[in-house]
UniProtKB/TrEMBL annotation:
Chain intervals for the UniProt region annotation (Disordered): 1-22
UniProt protein name: Glycerophosphodiester phosphodiesterase
Stored InterPro entries: GP_PDE_dom (IPR030395), PLC-like_Pdiesterase_TIM-brl (IPR017946)
Taxonomic superkingdom: Bacteria
BP term (GO), one: lipid metabolic process
Stored PANTHER family: GLYCEROPHOSPHODIESTER PHOSPHODIESTERASE, GLYCEROPHOSPHORYL DIESTER PHOSPHODIESTERASE
Positions in coiled-coil regions: none
The organism of origin for this protein: Hymenobacter lapidarius
SUPFAM superfamilies named in the record: PLC-like phosphodiesterases
Lineage of origin: Bacteria, Pseudomonadati, Bacteroidota, Cytophagia, Cytophagales
């Protein structure tokens, strides 16, 4: 039996997790995306974090500038082959902030409303969203913060796990959002360390296509709060097996954008879904 992690209160309906804010509607991982997702009524704001050369916690999916969505610090386009040359872990945040990562509409998201936007600091996101919840008169926001770590990236595109985790936990503590945050990662090392250092922190183990799921969870060594598999791998049999062996484990698959898939997963009783189009999922849920 795996030792349990912190259990969050069960939601009254499946949670809507706005992926990178609402990537299908606004530029990903930017303040406009987070604020729009909040105004739509998402339950959880999902975002990714990397580290700059001057040890700032920056909200970004890739630890480099993605040429599909970012201009370089001078406002010029980045050739597709050159994106990884702009390693954020080797750039000070002042340089990163000059890069416009909202003006270019992502080619995979035709509904996205483009607008100038920078890669914000995690502290900046917390400040903006905490203020916005007060203006909207809604309960405090909940957060899912994914640490973009991998063994291959240690000391090249991000700090090693102890330093990376310490920087992120310090931001969560400073913003006083630890109790409302779930820490996500594909890298088991981050989650294992987080569980040792902060056993009450909610965690989510993300997996791509590892089946059976139970094997991945046993290898993790403790029971996280949430399990986040690729939605494409979900079958009724897999869900039944997970519920039977880990009845307290919350199931929140990613990334679910098609309404037909949303309905299929709702019928399977998932605890939430991460989606680029939170408006679509919200329209399927009872008011």
């Amino acid at each position: 039996m795996l030792p349990p992690s912190n259990n969050l209160p069960a939601p009254s309906h499946p949670e809507v997790h706005g992926h990178r804010g609402c990537r299908g509607l606004r530029p990903e991982n930017t303040l406009p995306a987070f604020l729009h997702a909040l105004s739509l009524g998402v339950d959880v704001i999902e975002l990714d974090v990397v580290i700059s050369a001057d040890k700032q916690v920056v909200v970004s999916h890739e630890p480099w500038l993605n040429p599909l969505i970012c201009l370089d610090p001078t406002g010029e386009s980045i050739p597709l082959a050159d994106g990884r040359n702009y390693n954020l872990y080797q750039l000070p945040y002042a340089t990163i902030r000059r890069c416009n990562c909202g003006q270019l509409r992502h080619p995979s998201f035709p509904e996205q409303v483009s607008q100038p936007a920078h890669k914000p600091l995690l502290s900046e996101v917390f400040s903006a969203l905490e203020s916005a919840t007060l203006r909207l008169g809604r309960p405090p926001a909940k957060y899912s913060v994914e640490i973009k770590s991998s063994p291959a990236g240690d000391s090249l595109s991000h700090p090693p796990p102890p330093e990376f985790l310490a920087l992120v936990l310090a931001e969560l503590a400073a913003a006083e959002v630890l109790e409302r945050t779930t820490l996500l990662c594909f890298d088991a090392r981050i989650l294992q360390l987080a569980h040792r250092l902060q056993p009450d922190l909610a965690t989510c183990f993300l997996v791509e296509d590892q089946l059976p799921w139970a094997s991945s969870l046993h290898q993790l060594g403790y029971l996280p709060t949430t399990f986040g598999p690729n939605a494409a791998t979900i079958t009724p049999a897999a869900v039944h097996a997970l519920r039977r062996e880990f009845p307290s484990l919350r199931l929140v698959p990613w990334t679910v954008n098609d309404p037909a898939d949303m309905l299929r997963l709702l019928a399977l009783g998932v605890d939430g879904m991460t989606t680029d189009y939170p408006d679509r999922l919200l329209s399927l849920l009872p008011a």
